[in-house]
Write a structure and sequence with these properties.
About 40% of the residues lie in helices and about 20% in strands. The protein is α/β, with parallel strands linked by helices and about 375 residues long. Helix 2 packs antiparallel against helix 3 and helix 3 runs parallel beside helix 4.
Length: about 375
């Protein structure tokens, strides 16, 4: 059941507030974030509980192998789905939550491939099976409907960022949220009333993680320690930013491997630590380029995602944006934001409220989306 008009048939119309659990797993394979929120799906939300569950070495290995060879799809999907189920059950038990109090689960899934030009976006996990395993309705496949209707399918969280800002009294506009995952994306909010602009600005942690895995046999650069030891090659950053993709008008999105061949060809002669340092600084440089699309410069900047824990990336952002950089932690639980986002989007979808607009993804008309599955 994919069309938003069909959802309203199942809504508990007497409920003003929804209890929604959001599940978010990043492309870095570090684990699953689980967040429970209470929300009216518009201007009110409250984080009730949050936990992170690490992937086992076996699960990481199986997903990594699948990404490379695309074999044993059913087996890997089953492994990931069962892991999500196990985490939800543990979450409910640990926080003494009655399963009957949960209205909906928002399942992002693990992104395997994203190419809206080919009308294809793929997040691994099975919403129907998960719904049966936990006996709760599940909304998954959040990006597909948007892509099918001409949108980029990413980033999806712009309306969530708008809700975040509406929850604080002293928000300063224009405001930008920079989310650094496998890819870096931004939400630009000119004021509290308008629909935000959203788009990918370029690489995120993906290429830094790849560098760590290739040269140090570690999954990622914890706290940016190795990146901080290297020297930044500014001339290479300038050459990277000459790529025509950076000049393309938003909305736009990319797969995390989009720039791998191009950028690796430019940094191939650098030492491993210099590669990491240069890639970390590139994120700040990409943000400067992305903000050039707007006539009004932002007066506040929040940074979220796994990249905010990389001190080398943060140093680069402080160099360029120190006067507007604000801590997420002063208002929200920064680690829980992405999982909360998909709980919030699931609530909107469940109540037939749109979560993408032309300014966010380029979709022709505003839309909700996702695939709604009920337990048998």
């Amino acid at each position: 059941m994919k069309t938003r008009d069909k959802y309203s048939y199942f809504i508990k119309n007497n409920k003003s507030y929804i209890n929604a659990i959001g599940l978010m797993s990043g492309t870095s394979l570090d684990g699953l974030d689980v967040a429970l929120i209470k929300t009216n799906a518009t201007d009110y939300f409250e984080l009730k509980q949050f936990s992170t569950y690490e992937y086992s070495k076996s699960l990481k290995q199986n997903i990594s192998i699948f990404i490379k060879d695309r074999k044993n799809l059913n087996y890997v999907t089953s492994l990931l789905t069962k892991f999500n189920s196990k985490c939800i059950k543990s979450f409910l038990e640990n926080y003494n939550i009655n399963i009957k109090d949960i209205d909906i689960i928002g399942l992002h899934g693990h992104t395997i491939f994203h190419n809206p030009k080919e009308n294809w976006t793929w997040q691994l996990c099975d919403g129907k099976s998960l719904s049966n395993l936990i006996n709760i309705p599940v909304i998954s496949n959040f990006r597909y409907r948007d892509v099918s209707l001409g949108g980029e399918g990413a980033p999806l969280v712009g309306i969530w960022h708008k809700a975040l800002l509406s929850s604080i009294k002293d928000a300063v506009y224009p405001c930008v949220f920079l989310n650094i995952g496998g890819v870096s994306n931004i939400t630009y909010l000119e004021n509290k009333h308008d629909i935000p602009y959203c788009f990918d600005i370029g690489i995120g942690n993906g290429l830094i993680d790849y560098t760590m895995q290739k040269y140090y046999n570690i999954p990622f650069d914890k706290d940016g320690k190795i990146s901080l030891e290297g020297s930044i090659n500014k001339s290479i950053i300038k050459n990277i930013l000459k790529n025509n993709w950076y000049k393309k008008l938003p909305p736009k999105s990319i797969d995390k491997s989009h720039f791998n061949i191009f950028i690796n060809s430019l940094i191939k002669d650098l030492s491993a630590e210099d590669k990491a340092a240069t890639l970390s600084k590139l994120i700040s440089a990409q943000l400067k380029v992305g903000l050039n699309f707007f006539s009004q410069k932002p007066k506040s900047l929040y940074v979220s995602g796994g990249g905010k824990k990389n001190k080398a990336i943060l140093n680069g952002l402080r160099e360029d944006f120190d006067d507007i950089l604000l801590p997420l932690e002063s208002n929200w639980n920064s680690d829980a934001l992405e999982a909360q986002a998909f709980a919030y989007l699931a609530s909107r979808s469940y109540k037939s409220i749109p979560y993408t607009w032309k300014k966010i993804t380029g979709i022709r008309n505003q839309s909700s989306g996702g695939l709604l599955d009920f337990p048998d």
